[in-house]
């Protein structure tokens, strides 16, 4: 028998190649598992080529490490055929471990097929030498090499399947596994070589027939294998980093989408669900109630006096108050209930109930939560709430109905004195619809010329002469007839229409006064009432200047009446406005005096020329009464401050006489004439 020897360096190199090929195979398995579609198939093909070349090159490096005392060579066609077997076996291995699972039976069958393929690659590669006579294999060693190939294949498949995931610590585990798999592959090869017996006098047919020389094959195998394995590993690493970056970007995008979704569905200040999320949950609650026959309540909460907090302390303090109120309300509801903020100081609670009494109990808790004191840097603040309740089924079956009816019930609670809750009743909705229709008609009233000014004379006490007239607004509605100011002025204030209506009133009053004067009627002045909204509007001064200039009216002939409560709401700001108006030359009258709790400190600073006693003190005026004492004090105060004092609401001769005796400067009321249209007043003048 010919005795072969091994080159230790090439043996070591063959192991390195086996371990390197194993690592590439493990990495490729991870790439395949992390991909899908044509990308996964591309990684499968590339991985099969790289892994096949790695196993095949390890085999031929091991063959080159084996040296016989005769010339050696290899048939190129058979060598390439063995390479094809290695690639096909590798492709099958990667395909097996790319599946979702790897049960024991499937692993066993795959191990037999892959092990047989590796063994076939080895023994076909041995046949590339064309030994004459043929190689004699020891049965025991031959069987052992096949067994090692199958066991190694099974172990390799299991390890590759276990380590195909990506994550922390996986790269180190793959490195250790590659070393173990390299030992298994090398062990199979050298066990197979140990089984080979070369009879004395054997010759290598491939060397005689001009086959590939070992030196040339070594260069080809080494360069090709390391190039392919290196490219495969580099591509895999770059792809992994790209996927990691893509995953990071995807995670960031997902997180950003979550944040955007949260912001779109939640109130930015209180972090409560907003109107959009409430409507979605309300629709779900309706479907659930219809399906299961359940009931739920919708509670509409509006804070009482919140605007005053904003005006007095500023919006930042108001915002912190809203946040604290939201926390108090959240503490009173169950986890399955919904508390939403619609905007401003409006909150809505959606809660499952068994009977209306449960909703009433919850409303009581919520009222208590709203009224809890809130500690802020400016001290302790207290607000109350008004709650309207609508029950699904009884008060509506759609989201729109329930919201509208709960809102109507809330306004009814406001009208009942606030800090109460109120269940919806159909009459509330009718009133709300009527009010809405009135607002729509009010918007068109100016363009349709439905407004008219009536005028009421003001006389010097006791019975003349005329000192002026007061312009009083009337609305001639096409269906309702004459609508009085106490009906539509609050709506005009609420909707902001009061600014345009007020501009028209000032302009028309100035026009009418100058028309009377042109007709020869000497009317000393005309008084116009300013609403709180109108008084604080930035354009008030400009509108008055415009009206005076348009009609050529002396500013002193215009008297602007501001209620005492309006002037005292923010005394410092009111003082600035009144000083600007006074500088313009118009006169200022403090209306409804005695009802607004004026501070004398501010009153003496106001540039007013007239105090107007409220009709509430005149209505029951009799000698010796409390009203007489109050009127007397007001008149005395007016004289001290050099102000004219006019009493309105004079309806009887007795009132006329007593007010004159008390020292009232001027009188106004039904006793001297009811408010009437300009034509009628002009004729009387």
UniProtKB/TrEMBL annotation:
Domain GGDEF, chain residue ranges per copy: 294-426
GO CC terms in record: membrane
Residue ranges occupied by any EAL domain in the UniProt entry: 435-685
Essential cofactor(s): Mg(2+)
GO-annotated molecular function: cyclic-guanylate-specific phosphodiesterase activity
Transmembrane found in the keyword field: yes
Domain of life assignment: Bacteria
Cross-referenced Gene3D superfamilies: 3.30.70.270, EAL domain
Membrane-crossing residue ranges in chain numbering: 6-26, 38-56, 76-95, 107-126, 141-163, 175-196, 216-238
GO biological process, one term: cellular response to nitric oxide
Domain MHYT: 6-199
PROSITE patterns for the chain: EAL, GGDEF, MHYT
SUPFAM superfamilies, per database record: EAL domain-like, Nucleotide cyclase
Keywords: c-di-GMP, Membrane, Transmembrane, Transmembrane helix
InterPro entries linked to this entry: Biofilm_reg_signaling, EAL_dom, EAL_sf, GGDEF_dom, MHYT_dom, Nucleotide_cyclase, Rev_trsase/Diguanyl_cyclase
Catalytic activity: 3',3'-c-di-GMP + H2O = 5'-phosphoguanylyl(3'->5')guanosine + H(+)
The protein's Enzyme Commission number: 3.1.4.52
Xref: PANTHER family: BIOFILM ARCHITECTURE MAINTENANCE PROTEIN MBAA (PTHR44757:SF2), DIGUANYLATE CYCLASE DGCP (PTHR44757)
Name of this chain's protein: cyclic-guanylate-specific phosphodiesterase
Source organism (scientific name): Luteimonas terrae
